[in-house]
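== Polypeptide entry ==
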Amino acid sequence: MTTTAADRPDVAAARRPTPTLLGLGVTAVAGLGLSVLYATTGLGVPCVFRAATGWDCPFCGGTRMGAALLHGDLATAWHFNPFALVGLGLATLLGGWLLVEQATGHRGALASRLSGLAGRLRIRFTTTTVTIAACALMVVWTVVRNVTLGPLP
């Protein structure tokens, strides 16, 4: 009787996408869908935070940013939301990195070096610490954006 890679639990687990990769994929599909909807129809999702406070949330302008990117207009995308644009670039790099790790089954030299550097600096990247750091950045961006730039048109 022959066994296939799917019959071996270690191989099947290695091929299963990580929760981070799945989350990035779902977010990418949702963002692309909203951007395509806005670019083709002009319809977007209203922001509850903006309606309640009058301030732009960290993601306000993100749909219009995505629509501008679909048209190849990087300057307009930057105008709508530079924070989300940088986040999109970082998420794209992370997603690509995770896809390569998933396809090859190993971390790679860069991941090992970064992990070693984080260990020497006593930085521990857990879901909780990354989430807290991201939330803190979003709060800072929201305040800076609304105090210095004012709400988007």
Summary: DSSP finds eight helices and no strands in the chain. The first helix runs from residue 9 to 15. The helical segments are 9-15, 19-41, 48-53, 62-70, 74-80, 82-104, 109-120, 127-149. The chain has one domain: 17-149.
